[in-house]
Specification:
The protein has helices spanning 3-33, 49-68, 91-100, 113-116, 120-125, 161-169, 183-198, 217-226, 237-250, 269-275, 299-313, 323-340, 345-354, 416-419, and strands spanning 36-41, 77-82, 106-107, 130-132, 147-149, 174-180, 202-209, 230-235, 258-263, 283-286, 378-382, 399-403. By secondary structure, the chain is an alpha/beta fold. Strand 6 (174-180), helix 7 (183-198) and strand 7 form a beta-alpha-beta unit.
């Protein structure tokens, strides 16, 4: 072989090696670049649809933020989402499809207790990590050690303890219960009843009603006649709004020192806007209100960005209840995956179980059954609400934190008849 041929052969060899290296590199990029799929169902229609849309926006904001930072493990994050239509019967099929057809890497539970409960046996059987999404006691019977709820409660008592203690401290000796005849509401009511019995309160009225009841006038008149000092209500959004309107129309008498407790829906901007000043005096559970005591790092910046997106998406304009806690799900997954450099569900579960996690809703540490180690359910009283301008709820002072003591920003105004005026 002459010198010219030798040089040509060397060039061909170098070119071939270069092409092989490029092909191998491209294949590596493709493998590393396959998205990390996070699967979930989320109500976009039905009774839970309003909250579900707002919750999903919070998750989408986290996805966009993490992808802007380069993704997880150098891979883009993709949300695979199906509408469960607020129907629990759809969720087992949806999650089976997410696992067996979509081949998702991580799972987030649907919003709410009823849609989540049917998938718990599935995730336990397959030993899968499941991030909970504002459900209540769904793991009490299943006892799955890879379940982690994003909601700041521990058990039923955490929803009523502060409420009942405040009523008793103001001289309350009797109590009335008004609750929807549905699993979630009854769990709250039973917890409150057990606590009130332990506190020595006398039950003078106890009424269950069918879900989606619209007219409470007869029940409220009977409740008023019983002259309770404390009124604990466990209701769903439409019912909560109807009860507030009914109480404002009928009144409760001078005996009632405190009313509210477990009324779902009074945290949602559309209902707050519709009821306006009729909310004054009600004391109810919540998870976040814009008081200085809850100004956790990142929450104000998140809510500012959320408000702009919510307007375009036509969802809950305030976004206090679900969106920040859904963003927090993403933050916890991000911390677990980044720290362990793994997508193995058992590895991630062990990290989530043993570490404290920094989120925009404050630090989160897990305890029994994958619920928070310490409850951070607050009791807040609507005060000074004027008209129906939703913007007023962005300011401190409209939902005053009464409980727990560590977050307290004001004192209970009572009796109710005086507080509502």
């Amino acid at each position: 072989m002459n010198q010219k041929s030798s040089r040509f052969a060397v060039r061909r060899a170098l070119l071939a090696a270069s092409m092989a290296a490029t092909a191998a590199f491209s294949t590596g990029i493709h493998a590393q670049g396959a998205p990390i799929k996070v699967g979930l169902s989320m109500a976009q229609t039905g009774p839970l649809g309003g909250g579900g849309k707002a919750a999903l926006l919070g998750l989408q904001m986290w996805r966009d933020d993490i992808n802007a930072k380069g993704g997880l493990l150098g891979r883009r994050v993709e949300l695979v989402v199906y509408d469960d239509q607020s129907n629990p019967s759809t969720t087992p099929g949806i999650y089976t499809k997410l696992l067996d057809v979509d081949k998702v890497d991580l799972l987030i539970a649907p919003y709410g207790t009823n849609p989540t409960a049917p998938i718990m046996p599935l995730v336990k059987q397959r030993q899968l990590l499941l991030m909970g999404n504002f459900s209540f006691e769904v793991n009490d019977r299943i006892q799955h050690d890879m379940w982690f709820n994003n909601a700041p409660w521990t058990d039923a008592v955490s929803w009523s303890q502060g409420f009942i203690e405040m009523g008793k401290k103001r001289g309350g000796k009797t109590i009335a219960f008004l609750s929807a005849d549905a699993e979630f509401a009854q769990s709250l009511a039973i917890g409150a009843k057990n606590l009130s019995k332990h506190q020595g309160l006398n039950t003078v009225y106890d009424q269950k009603y069918p879900p989606n009841t619209a007219d409470f006038s007869a029940m409220l008149r009977a409740l008023k006649a019983a002259k309770p000092d404390i009124v604990f209500v466990a209701s769903y959004p439409g019912e909560s709004a109807a009860i507030v309107r009914g109480v404002n129309e009928i009144g409760l008498g001078d005996n009632v020192k405190i009313i509210g407790g477990g009324m779902v829906g009074l945290q949602f901007a559309p209902i707050m806007e519709a009821l306006g000043s009729q909310l004054n005096g009600f004391v109810n559970y919540n998870v976040y209100v814009p008081e200085k005591a809850m100004n956790y790092p990142g929450i104000e910046e998140f809510l500012t960005r959320y408000a702009a997106k919510a307007k375009a998406e036509k969802v809950d304009p305030l976004g206090y209840y679900l969106p920040p806690f859904n963003y927090a799900i993403g933050q916890m997954l991000e911390q677990a995956v980044t720290a362990t450099k793994s997508l193995d569900h058992k590895v991630l579960a062990n990290y989530l179980r043993t570490k404290e996690h920094k989120t925009i809703v404050g630090p989160i540490k897990y305890g029994r059954n994958g619920e928070w180690a310490e409850s951070r359910v607050i009791m807040a009283q609507f005060s000074g609400v004027q008209g129906k301008d939703i913007e007023q709820f962005r300011k401190p002072g409209k939902q005053v934190i009464l409980y727990p003591e560590s977050l307290k920003t004001g004192e209970l105004k009572f009796p109710y008849e005086k507080a509502r005026k």
